[in-house]
Structures are given as structure tokens and as C-alpha cells.
Write a structure and sequence with these properties.
mainly beta, five-stranded mixed beta sheet, globular, five-stranded antiparallel beta sheet, 6% helix
Length: 404
């Protein structure tokens, strides 16, 4: 139990990417933080950048979360670009909620399953592979161990949400260039689609393209804050300029939204988050309108759906990007404070079934992914000795016959 985990009547196991891991396992040492840019030795008066390895994050959760995750054999991957964190949230043998934390600078879009996780970062797209066989555990408890196997350098594209195509290729929202993109063998990215109203590919974040919905293993719908075709034009259109676009037809299938995020196709419906109003809802294609389903107390961003429940990420409104939206009025009307965390919501009646809350130095969530058939996951970090010492292999070399 670490001092960054608030404990009420809910038992939490927290494994953090820091020098001292008070988890009952062998401690895994962290690397020393890299030298800060603009140091005194260089004669710069610029303040040192915040050391994200030293941030304090308090975690609380609903009483039934551990049992619910364990019963359904589910875990969650949660990212926060503000703190550079990815959390793998599962349940351990003692019936506690397990938070396994790793640091990847500007952790953004995440998508995954029991075998593989992709994560967008500041200037790289990461691929993690589970190295454990079925019914195998590591450190006596973790049933999945995700190892970083590839980090493709793409540059700072302000990468947002990700999808995995049925051919195995990753597609991602390239927000800086207002397009959908794939990885390239040679270049930073390969553009595969842009909105018709964007006249050219340019590093100008014109419409703030941000969300991606996959349908049958192919990219199908995207969200954008507006239809602007000028540099940074979306900031003045946050209140009601949002659109959902069908990328196959270039048709705008829903408009009048307030900072829409995270479209997801599930059971014949297109669900999404109307972040500026604090609502989870779905698209009525006939009316080209958003139908609210549930209010959430925060800036909604990050959505994952499984069965008949949705995990919704919540962030605290901040600065001029998020303030001045209808969400502010809704929070005042309900006498509610904004959350940073995750709420698991019924798609039947909109009730909150379980929740996770983050406080302290963490105020924003970016993305969420359910990991089915994963109960208690861990991830190898870049600041640990394990990344050197955990070696697994496959082989076509035949076993040598014993000597006579």
C-alpha cells in the first residue's frame, strides 16, 4: 500500500513506476530522471520542467469494483497525458483493486486486448505484447505481462485515438495534420483520409479531429470539434460546432455538438461523448442529432464499451479550452464538483455501476480500453531492470538429442 493511494473502505493494491514499490514483490528500481532541459549548468534561467516521475496521485474506487472486474474477468487500461501515466486496473487474488502504473510521456490513445496493447505517446506509437502463456503467472500473481516490443517514432503529431484494422495495421487520428493516418516504413505517417472541408495537410490542427470509431475492423466514423479550415480554428467553435463524419461517404451524420469525443460503434449504435455538455449518448442518424443517455460530472473523454456497460473517462475542466461550456452550468445546476476518473455506466438505464477517482496531481483522463479475459495485468516499464532481464523467446531450433 503506497501513500499515494487513499484507502477508505475499499482495498487497493498500487504498483507504481517509481524507485520504491511497496507491493510485497521484489522492488524494481527506476532509472534516475533524465537531466532537465535548461539546467543551471547551461546558464538558463528557465524554470525546470515538472518531473512527471514525482507526481502524487491519490486513487479511490467504488466498493464493488474489484468484485465486478473479477467476476467478468475484465481489466481497464487508462491513460493520462497530463501526468504521462498508463494504468492497468484489475483485481488480485486478495479481492483488491490493482492499479499497475507505468510512465510514458504524454500517454494518449490506447487500444488493446489480452495479447496486445497499442499506446500513442509524445512522439512514438508503442506496441506491447503479453509474453505469458495461458494459465501462467509472473511474480506469483499477474496473469498478463505486457512488454514494450516496438516504439515507432512518428514525431509530435498530437496523436489522439487509435484503432486496429482487420489486417492488423494500426490507424490513428493525426490531430496536428487533421487526418487519419497509418504507420509508414520510411516517413512519420501515411495519410489515408482527411475531411473534405480541410483543404490540405498542414501541421495546423484546423478542426481538432480527435475521435475514431471502428466498424467491422475498419475506420468508419470520426469526431471533430468543428469544420474549420484555418489554423487552430476550432477554439472559437467549441460550444456547438462539433460534428461526426462518415469517412466512407464524407457525410456529416451528426452536428451541433460541443467538443465531441470518442465515438464507438456497439450493437448497431454509434455512441459518443458530448464532452462540452458532460453527456454520454448516441447518434440518431435520421435526425442527424445527438441523443443524451447519461450525464457525467466532468469533461468526458475516453470511452470503451463491453456487453451492456460503458466506461467513461472524466477530466476536470481547465483553462480556456474547457471553460465556458454548457458543462459548467450543468455542474452548478446539480451542485456537483467535476471529477477526474472513470465511471462505469449502464447502457440500459444510465446508472453508474462502479467508479474510479483520481486526485492530487492528476486532473485529466485521455482514453480508456476494456481488456477482456485479463484479470490482473502488469506492464514492463522503461525505468525498470526488468526491461533488461525479462527475456523470452520462441525457437525453430530442434532440441538436441542427449549424448549416448
Amino acid at each position: 500500500m503506497t501513500n499515494e493511494s487513499k484507502q477508505t473502505d475499499v482495498d487497493i493494491q498500487s504498483n507504481q513506476d517509481k524507485p520504491e514499490l511497496e507491493t510485497g514483490l521484489d522492488a524494481v528500481a527506476a532509472e534516475a530522471p533524465a537531466a532537465e532541459a535548461g539546467s543551471a549548468a547551461a546558464g538558463s534561467a528557465k524554470p525546470a520542467a515538472r518531473d512527471i516521475t514525482k507526481l502524487k496521485v491519490d486513487k479511490t474506487c467504488s466498493r464493488g469494483l474489484a468484485g465486478w472486474l473479477g467476476q467478468h474477468r475484465l481489466s481497464l487500461a487508462i491513460t493520462s497525458y497530463q501526468t504521462g501515466r498508463i494504468y492497468l486496473v484489475g483485481s488480485d487474488k486478495q479481492g483488491r483493486v490493482s492499479f499497475f502504473e507505468r510512465i510514458f510521456e504524454r500517454a494518449m490513445g490506447v487500444v488493446g486486448n489480452a495479447q496486445r496493447i497499442y499506446l500513442g505517446g509524445l512522439y512514438q506509437l508503442w506496441r506491447f505484447e503479453n509474453v505469458l502463456r495461458p494459465n501462467e503467472v509472473i511474480h506469483g500473481q499477474f496473469d498478463k505481462c505486457y512488454v514494450p516490443r516496438n516504439a515507432q517514432t512518428i514525431g509530435d503529431l498530437d496523436i489522439h485515438e487509435l484503432g486496429i484494422r482487420k489486417n492488423g495495421k494500426v490507424v490513428f487520428v493525426n490531430t496536428k495534420y487533421s487526418c487519419l493516418a497509418e504507420l509508414s516504413q520510411t516517413h512519420s505517417f501515411k495519410a489515408i483520409w482527411k475531411p473534405k472541408f480541410v483543404s490540405k495537410l498542414a501541421p495546423e490542427d484546423r478542426c481538432h479531429l480527435n475521435g475514431l470509431a471502428m466498424v467491422d475492423g475498419e475506420p468508419k466514423y470520426v469526431t471533430a470539434v468543428c469544420k474549420s479550415d484555418s489554423v487552430d480554428g476550432w477554439r472559437e467553435r467549441r460550444r456547438d460546432g462539433g460534428v461526426v463524419i462518415d469517412i466512407d461517404t464524407d457525410e456529416i451524420v451528426c452536428e451541433g455538438l460541443s467538443m465531441p469525443h470518442s465515438p464507438r460503434w456497439h450493437n448497431g449504435k454509434l455512441w459518443l461523448l458530448n464532452a462540452g455538455t458532460g453527456q454520454l449518448g448516441w447518434v440518431d442518424f435520421e435526425k442527424k442529432a445527438f441523443v443524451p443517455h447519461a450525464f457525467v460530472p466532468g469533461f468526458a473523454r475516453g470511452l470503451s464499451i463491453i456487453g451492456n456497460v460503458a466506461a467513461v473517462g472524466l477530466s476536470k475542466p481547465r483553462n480556456q479550452r474547457f471553460e465556458g461550456l454548457q458543462l459548467d452550468d450543468e455542474l452548478k445546476k446539480r451542485d456537483a464538483e467535476p471529477w477526474c476518473g472513470v465511471q462505469i455506466i449502464s447502457l440500459t438505464n444510465g446508472d453508474v455501476l462502479n467508479w474510479i477517482r483520481f486526485d492530487g496531481d492528476m486532473g485529466e483522463i485521455f482514453d480508456i480500453a476494456f481488456l477482456p479475459n485479463v484479470k490482473h495485468p502488469m506492464m514492463i516499464g522503461l525505468r525498470t531492470n526488468e526491461i533488461r532481464d525479462l527475456i523470452t523467446f520462441e525457437s525453430e531450433v530442434p532440441a538436441q538429442a542427449p549424448a549416448a
